[in-house]
Each structure stands twice: as structure tokens, then as C-alpha cells.
Amino acid sequence: MQGKLYGIGVGPGDPELLTLKAVRILKKIDYLCYPISQPGKPSIALEIAAGAVKKNWCVAELYLPMTRDDSVLEGHWQEAALKISDILRSGQDCAFITLGDPSLYSTFVYLVRKLKVILAELEVEIVPGISSPNILAAQAQVSLAEGEESFLIIPGISDLDKIGQALDSFDNIIFLKVGRTFSEIYPILQEKGLEEKAVFGERCGFSDEYLSFNLQDVAQRQRDYLSLLFVKKGGFK
Amino acid sequence: MQGKLYGIGVGPGDPELLTLKAVRILKKIDYLCYPISQPGKPSIALEIAAGAVKKNWCVAELYLPMTRDDSVLEGHWQEAALKISDILRSGQDCAFITLGDPSLYSTFVYLVRKLKVILAELEVEIVPGISSPNILAAQAQVSLAEGEESFLIIPGISDLDKIGQALDSFDNIIFLKVGRTFSEIYPILQEKGLEEKAVFGERCGFSDEYLSFNLQDVAQRQRDYLSLLFVKKGGFK
């Protein structure tokens, strides 16, 4: 009988932010698949999972480089899906772990799409995880949205028109992965008089997290890939 | 010494979706505050927490009615904040539990604002929880957003212009609490040819959860307050 695939969100960094369900399944399954962004580089998702559950899993490392070039990614997703399908065909259940939540900007959805083509039947269970916006809000002690407010998540790599439109139209806006694009977004915030209505977070939930309400300080530092910027147009109360 | 206030997200319904951190703190603290929407009605947040942790907490029930009338709410928040401040002043730590996440459409932020006025110093720690959009996505096995897509959360009670604008401008839109307003939103989706690019979820994460990709079915049923509608403009792959 073919194994079952679990897509498990391990949350934003702190192993204590795994859910009871994620922990139960990680203890139960023998086979763990995790993504790495560079060969030889440790998997962040694996470090978080191993921080919460001690187990000698059989592992499959899936090399999924951080590139926006779909033609390159296609091949890596396909290779990863083949590795997972081999495990499932052998009758073993298997968990794919992902930083944050499997449904929000995660590689998991691409893998499932590829697997559905490879395997005639595929049993999947998804375990949600805490997303980076939620941990940023918790650590900065701000509300992401309240009452009738809207809340928009957009990648920091969006074009500048889209960013301007988002800031004009919605109450609360979070930009994901702004490490590189912060220097383009910051002037737009200044122009719109929003630079004091924002908070920047980097590696929120990790032991080396950095949080700042002072965007001038943020502009002057080296910024990590795992960083986000939250703009609350009504200001922080 | 004054006690510390924890704002704990108990997630979307399933006690297994509490985080390890939420469970650790709920086991440790002696005083638990929880909201009820009607006198005599059980607290959903308490039922979830008690499903994960067995403990005889000292409890403070906070009556926070579901109304959009701020003048009515103000008094209830103030009363709730006074109850919490009494506990903290007695030197006891205290946890306020909330459905989902404390930073996303939760009463917790209002309570903290009131408490900051009452108490000269206030020590707060927020523990994020899984939000309803994430459990809807997990259960329906759809992605909320991927790649460079945008993701917007808006309350179902937003005005129709705002709803139309959201559907025109963004890739993925989730409407919260659409129990009553579904009948107004559904015709807009039909008009825009989006009725087959949507999934409706009710009480996701609870044992009586209901999910449907067929909005005609949804239109014909009695809908719960805890319901959401996710529209994926690119369609589900």
C-alpha cells in the first residue's frame, strides 16, 4: 500500500511554536523530507523540527534553489517529487516539513502538483503552521488587523506600482522577504508619510531575531532574506 | 510584584493545533481569562484550551458581546480590563486566550490598550496561534498564495465597492465572517466569473467543519458566524 504524505508547517523559527499535531506526526513517521536552498547548507526547517522532536528519521534532502527562474525550478521540483514518490511507493508515510505554513508561499504546493502527475493516487494531509506575519506581530506587540480593517500580504519583490497601490488602498500591508527590496520600498513609505507607521522584522522567532520601528536604522544594516516589513496606515496605538 | 499577561492564540478549533508554547504556558499559569459572547454561553476559546490542557484554572469570564457598536463595546472592554488588572495587581500571572491568533482580528489588542491606561506598567507576552485562513487552506488543500502573488484578508462586512476593488486588484482574497454577507458577495463573484474559483469553509478545525467548492450549495444553507470564503483568481490547480 502506498504511503501518505504529510505537509507540515514547522512555524517561523522557534521549535516551541510547532503545534501538538506537528509534533505527534513527526514522532510517528519514519521518513522526513526537507528542503535545502544550497547543497551543503543546513535546512532551516530541519533545524526547527529537530529542536522540537528528537528522532533519527530516514531523511531525503530536496535541493530547491532560491531562484525565480521557473525553468530551473521545474527540474528541481520534478526531482524532489520523484524522491518523495519513491518513498511513498515503498509503502512508507513521509513528512515534508516547511518553514511557516505549507499553504502560504511554500514549496509544498508545487511538490504536490508534481506528485499528482507522477502518482495515480496521492493521500495528503496538511498541518498548518504559524506564519511569519503572526510572529512579527506577536514579538512587536502590534495588531495585524482589527475590526473592519483589511490586511494585505505582498511579496517585497512586487513592482513599485503594485506597492504604491497597496499602500493607497489597504489598512495594513505586510511585505515579505524585503531584505533586498527594502531600499526601494523605504522611499515610497517616506513619500507617503508612512515611515513612522511601520515595523521591520528579521528572522522573527529565531534566537537572533531583530525588530525595529526605526526604518532609518533598518536602511543602514545588512538585511537577511527572512525579513518582513509591516505597515499599519492608522499607526500603532 | 505585578503579574504578567499572556495573550495566547489557541488556534482555529482543533486542540491539537495549539503550539507547544501555548500548552507550556497554559500548564504553568493559574489564572485564565476568556471571552464569552453571551452570558451563559460557553467560551469557544476555553473549550479548545481545555481540550489540550487539563487544569483547574482560576477563571475570569469576560463578557464581550458581538456588536459593532463601539459605545457598547467600550464599556465591556473597560470592565474586562479592570478584571484582568485586578488579577495582575494581586501578583498573579494571567493568560487571556483567544480563538486563532491574538494579532489578527482579536479582542486582545483592545484589552491591552485599556490595560495600559489602567496600569502604569504592563508586562505582556503574545503567543501566536494558527489563523482560520491557514486551516481552511490546509483542509481544502489549496495554496493561499505562492510566488509573487498577493494575498488579501478582508472582513465580509466590508462595503461592496471595497469587495469589488479587492477582487479586481489582488490574486487571492479571503473574506472573514461571511455567514451573513455571503448572499451579497456571491452575486459579485458570479458577475466576475469567479464562482468556480472559490472555496467556502465553516468552523474549519472543529469536529463539525464544513467545506465546499460549490457556492450554490453554500448559498442554500444556514451559515455559521465562523465562516470564510477564499477566492483564488488564478483558479485551483
Give the termini separation of chain A. Answer: 56 Å
Rg on CA atoms of chain A, Å: 19 Å
Shape of chain A: elongated
CATH architecture of the largest domain in chain A: 3-Layer(aba) Sandwich
- Average pLDDT rating of chain A: 94
Write down the domain tally of chain A: 2
Strand content of chain A: 15-25%
Order of helices and strands of chain A: EHEHEHEHEHEHEHEEHE
**Largest beta-sheet characterization of chain A:** 5 strands, parallel
- Tally of contiguous helical segments of chain A: 8
CATH overall fold name of the largest domain in chain A: Cobalt-precorrin-4 Transmethylase, domain 1
Number of strands of chain A: 10
CATH class of the largest domain in chain A: Alpha Beta
The greatest interface between two protein chains, and residues involved on each side, is: A-B, 59 and 59 residues
Strand order of the largest sheet of chain A: 3-2-4-1-5
Coarse structural class of chain A: alpha/beta
Structural description of this entry:
Two copies of one chain form a homodimer. In chain A, helix 3 (70-89) crosses helix 4 and helix 6 packs across helix 7 (182-191). In chain A, strands 3-2-4-1-5 form a five-stranded parallel beta sheet, with helices on both faces. The first copy, chain A, has a five-stranded mixed beta sheet with strand order 6-7-10-8-9, with helices on both faces. Chain A is an alpha/beta fold. The termini of chain A are far apart. Helices cover 35% and strands 21% of the residues of chain A. Chain A folds into two domains: 5-127, Tetrapyrrole methylase, N-terminal domain (Cobalt-precorrin-4 Transmethylase, domain 1, 3-Layer(aba) Sandwich), CATH 3.40.1010; 132-232, Methyltransferase, Cobalt-precorrin-4 Transmethylase, Domain 2. Chain A is built from eight helices and ten strands. The interface between A and B is large, with 59 and 59 residues.
